[in-house]
Every structure is written in structure tokens, then in C-alpha cells.
């Protein structure tokens, strides 16, 4: 791709085609409807209902009548929407509970009548494979990835690279079945947690070594419990990935509440409350057994895997690139200048990388996105466009980026001009906060150096950095002969001085 031009996305389906995927999970039933137009997939509808199918399994693995009726009633809601979609564009699957239930045929027969479509009960390995594909299509490639999905009755663990799952397992442990086994009386105790965590570890023990043999670069959680924990962290002002110490803190918060009925944690939704302790116990076991340092939230899971699997002639474009292209087109950002800022920022970043330790955080994706979207807010107006851009990013889907990366991009866009507000970065983990401070300085310089919006007017420069002082040097009398940029850099020197950063320009 020419660095100064945005490629046109090649369409991979006829305009305005509708597709739907239905996932009959052990805790919730989900339906997602998408419209495919001009090479882009747009979600136009989502329906989710808590059916708690797994809670209806008795000791003989038979679904009781109440759970059957809950499931069928939910499917009657889905069926009306599915009438508008070609049968060939619909995929409906059942997962763990329908694999386990001895009377699953009773449920399936009635379900197929209601939906007027075949229902496929997929095995655990196929579920894991589809989950991985859903994560891979909606998340960025960062080498080997460990993907975890905690469902109502099963947990899938997968290691893969790009679009290919390499090793996967599906285990019979889930937040609904663990609730019935370890928290059935509604009490939340240290003993109940330890029993649940211990049992989960015993189930993981036979497969742990297989996964530890893979060197993964990132761990991604797919929906469910990880999503609930991320929502809690964000609500409580913690813009960070999931870490083991946070999980243990949440465990203690649960115990302090004594019972599920009294369970109140800031950011925990009512719909998730009953199964939160059991899901948390499973996740703690996974973190400890697999030596997970941090987990990010993926953009997709089983449903997305089913959708993209139907689009088998889809172009395998990088998801991040496609996301940025779509935003640039939608909000009328000048693509040539977006690339100019990006290239300058990357040039500065490479010089900084040689001199400062930045390996703890994946900086480049955030810097590229913030550079290309720095003028996003001009769609509203110029004067406060950095704030408008951050506002828009609060509501835009960013396929290919983790939730933490989106928050980082938003903070960078908000901080790329005018006064620097260090409070913008307070909610991030110290490692991430440190990286974002550096990226902010880089982005601000890139925007100033490209202010003339012409490639042939860009300067050669040399950047020397340490933690205390940055020195930007230009050849000869270049800076004196460009008074506009000289004045902008003088102002930038003052803005950085006000927050304790030192910048010198010669």
C-alpha cells in the first residue's frame, strides 16, 4: 500500500446481504444480525436472553420442563427476526448443555419447528475452533494468542496464530454448572471459592503442560466473565487489562458480601450477579494454572466466528487497517494527511525506541491509530477537535483493537494538542500510563512538524531522549527559516514544561 494513500477495500459480498448467527449457550441465547455492504460487515441487530439452560440439568443429565420452556420462548422471539433473512445466510448452533442433555432431542425438535431452520449441536472442539475464528476476525494479529471463553457449562481454551487455531480443548466447567455445584445455597464463602478453584485446577491439570509449551504473545478473553470483570474495572476507574491481583480483590469483595442475594460490586450488572462468583473462580484457576500475566477482551467470540465462516470469500484484510479506513472515510478525514502524521510519528517513535524501554506495552498500534485519527473531531468543529475526537471514539466500534488499546487511542487523540491534562492517564496501569505519556509527546511533535500539510516541506530531524529531557535537532538553520514551526515548538516547549516534561529544540 502506498504510504500516502488509503487502499480501497475490495467488496467480498453482494451489497446489502443480511446474515444471522444464533448461539444457544448454556447460560444465554444470543442472536446477531449483520449487513454486508461494499466489503464491510455492519452489526444491525443483537438479541441476548438469559435462558440458564444448564441450570435445568438434573443429576441424570435431563433438562427439566421449565428450562425447555425458557429456551423455546426465547427462540420464538428470535424466529420473527430470522424471517427476514435468507435461510442460506443463517447458522444456528447449540453448545455444551445440548451436548450433555440426554433429552436434547426433545428440545431440538421443537426448536427447529419454531425457527424453521436446522439446529446443529457442535462438539467442544468445533465450538473452540469457531470461538477462536470469531476472536481472530475481530482482534489484531500479535503472534501466538491464547484465547479463553468461559461459558455456562463449558470452558474453551485455544492457542492460535492469525486465523489458524493450533491447539484447543473444551472442558466441562462453566459458570452455571459451577454455581449449581459450589454456590447452590447462595452463600459466598472462602471455602466455596477454594473448592471451586481447586476443582477447576484439577480439570485443567491434564492439559496445562500442553498450553505452557506454547509461547503466546497475548491472552484474550471472549465475552462472559472476562467482559463482566472489564466492565467492573472500567466503572471503578481502572483502565487496565485483567490481572490476577484484580481477580483476588474481586474474590474478596464477593466474600465480603456474604451471599449472592447481597452481592453488590460497582460495575457488576444484575444479570451477571448470580453466576459471577463461579465464573470468577474458574478464571482465577486459569490464570494461576496457565501463568497468565494479563488478559485483554476480544471483540468477538462464537457468534462472530459463525458469521465470518459464512463469508468464506471474505478478503483477509488486516482488521485494524480496515477499521481505520472505514473511520477515515465515514468522518471525511483527509487520508493523505492522516498518513503523513502517522509516518512522522513512527519516525519519531523509532528514534525513541532505541533510547527508552518500551517493551512492556504494545505501543505502535495505538500510535498509528491516534495519528491517523487525530483530526477525527474536525467532523464536528475545529477549535476543540481533540476533545470531539475523543468523544467520538468513546462510541465507535474499533475492530482489531482491545478495549485497553481503544482507551489509549482515545487518550492520545484527546491529548494531541493544546494543554496537556495528566489526569487523562490516571486510570491506566503505571506501565501503560508511562507509555502513553511518551506516545503523547511523539504525537504532539508529529502534528506540529506536519502543520504545513505538504510532504516536501517536512524536515529532517534527530531526537535524543531520556526520561527527563527530549532534544529535537534540525539541520543547519532549518528551524530559523521556518518561523511558524519554530513558534509552535516554542509553545509546545511551554506546554510540556507545565506538566514537568522538558523539551529543547535547535
From TrEMBL:
Q: Which reaction does it catalyse?
A: guanosine 3'-diphosphate 5'-triphosphate + H2O = guanosine 3',5'-bis(diphosphate) + phosphate + H(+)
EC number of the protein: 3.6.1.40
Q: What SUPFAM superfamilies does this protein's entry cite?
A: Actin-like ATPase domain, HD-domain/PDEase-like
Q: Does the keyword Acyltransferase apply?
A: no
Q: Ppx/GppA phosphatase N-terminal domain spans which residues?
A: 32-313
**Which leading EC class covers this enzyme?**
hydrolase
Family statement: Belongs to the GppA/Ppx family. GppA subfamily.
Q: What is this protein called?
A: Guanosine-5'-triphosphate,3'-diphosphate pyrophosphatase
